[in-house]
Amino acid sequence: MELRHIPLSELSVSALNMRHGRHAPDVSDILPSIRARGILQPLLVRPNHDGFEVVAGRRRYFAARALVEEGAEVEPLPCAVMGPSDDAEALEASLIENIARLDPDEMAQHETFARLIKEGRSIEQIAATFGITEIMVRRRLALGNLLPSLRSLYRKGEIDAETVRHLTMASKVQQKEWHRLHTDKEAHAPRGFQLKQWLFGGNTLSTKVALFPLEDYTGQIVADLFGEDAYFADIDQFWTLQNRAVAAKRDDLLAAGWPVVEVLETGQRFHEWDYEKTPKKKGGKVFVTISQRGEVEVFEGWLSRKEAKRRGRANGTETGGNEGEKPARPEVTKALQTYLDLHRHAAVRAVLLDHPGVALRLLLAHAIAGSRLWQVHPEPQDAGSEAIAASLASSSAQAAFAARRAEMLAVLGMPEDRTTVVHANGDGFGAADVFARLLVLPEAEVTAVLALVMGETLEAGSALVEAAGVHLTVDMRAHWQPDDTFFELMRDKPVINAMLAEVAGKMVADGNLTEKTATQKAIIRDCLIGANGRARVENWLPGWMAFPARAYTERGGVRAAEHWAAIGGLFATE
């Protein structure tokens, strides 16, 4: 015979049970006691193909089922598991005899067990003596952690078993506060599951869900004195370690050859009905979920049904034409791309002002090869949104260019309220007027006008912006700082996590892997200004803004990086 606790879902009534029948028995007489104290006497069960069948203890089994129907949380039931050669009648008689030797009062049982422990008896020996499980012995011993006033309330039946169990995990200060609430007629003392939330601040993260070695955790672990569970007291440290472990898991999966490992945000579910099982060699991805309780699940070899359908068409395995595979989603949105293009363009032409020789060569390149703007038209700097326009207007590069334009308008004798020097109106008399003015200007002023005109007609987002920016070694730090619009436009979670690693280090990035994008962006901003206890990071420049630019993923979609990949070999860089 083996004594153990077995979940109710694994139990069923045996056809050999002497009271077996179609109808559930009346359990109204024992239900109040079981509701308050739980099941004290073990059921006699034996294994079957579905789990275990109840040979003796049918009414206790149905009482537990009644509690479940009431919505209560029923713990695994104490059971005596029969062996192949065990005699059911003899075992049942032995269990009844042993349990009868126990005082029915649980506080009295606690006193008995505590006395036996002091005399040198082990928990295993006590359980064998009285025919109960070791967990039941631990539960009685755990009552010793209660204040005398709470033991008295339990003995009187004013506290239920579930509430007592959680109180045994509370500190003495918490127990005193709970007792105060209990005795205050105008207050409400939390009970059952609410008490568990009250003790742990709403967060109960079991040590069972940790992916990391428990020795890495340096905070307090609150143990269930019944010997069944333990909980992390430092929730923030748990999530940091758990996220790092998830990040390590992600890295291992990528190293194993999975093309994409997507870690979902905490609490986001993976719905298999929206995906199709797809092997690694056919592009299957891995999805990792982490629940609010810290539980981690890995789903290997899946593709969304839409993506699987696209791949099927591309491979000719699905009818419907010869449509190729849809390009991968770029890592930047259209609005963010516009933001990047305009800021980069503003910075390049601002630096260009001090390099008229380079401007001349750009001018000649336009004249020889042509471009979308060479008609001639100035770059319109169409921001597409008020936020991007406001960000560009506050740029120091934009201000420097506007100041130089005002100077050149005066040199050329043009109205000071003109927004550009270039004015493509096709008016030959106007061009002759400008030509006449240029003829009498010193060479230095002519080349200064030339640099300004080149800046006005340099196309934002073009390959020439990248070529000039790299050649001029433009340092975007002197012309741009991350602002609210930049952070608001960022959407791609893997990119944001990569930026977080640049600013705060890989450990911090891994520790916040499953946090929402808003949280990770907030940490980046804290690092840039040295807020909320973060060390200040000076002169950080995202890869998108560097010259040459770099992307953060293999998905592409960063225009500047793609341009430089195409033309970078034409230019010598130091």
Note down, in words, how this protein is organized.
The chain is an alpha/beta fold. Among the domains are: 2-168, Conserved hypothetical protein from pyrococcus furiosus pfu- 392566-001, ParB domain, CATH 3.90.1530; 237-314, no CATH class; 334-478, no CATH class. The protein contains 24 helices and 11 strands. A 5-stranded mixed beta sheet has the order 1-5-3-4-2, sandwiched between helices. The chain has a 4-stranded mixed beta sheet with strand order 8-10-11-9. The chain has a two-stranded antiparallel sheet with strand order 6-7. A hairpin with a 6-residue loop joins strand 6 and strand 7. Helix 4 (106-118) packs across helix 6 and helix 8 (161-167) runs parallel beside helix 10 (192-200). The longest helix is centred in the middle third of the chain and has 21 residues, at 235-255. It is elongated and about 120 Å long. Residues 319-325 have low confidence and may be disordered.
Q: What's the arrangement of secondary structure elements?
A:
Blueprint (H helix, E strand, L loop, with lengths): L1 E5 L4 E3 L17 H7 L5 E6 L2 E6 L1 H12 L7 E5 L6 H13 L5 H13 L4 H8 L3 H9 L5 H8 L5 H7 L4 H12 L8 H9 L20 E3 L6 E3 L2 H21 L5 E3 L11 E3 L7 E6 L5 E9 H10 L19 H19 L3 H14 L16 H8 L2 H16 L16 H12 L3 H14 L6 H9 L12 H6 L3 H12 L1 H6 L5 H13 L29 H9 L7
Helix pairs in contact: 4-6, 5-6, 8-10, 13-16, 13-18, 13-19, 14-18, 16-18, 21-23
Task: Name its key features.
47% helix, Conserved hypothetical protein from pyrococcus furiosus pfu- 392566-001, ParB domain, 574 residues, 24 helices, 11 strands, 5-stranded mixed beta sheet, 4-stranded mixed beta sheet
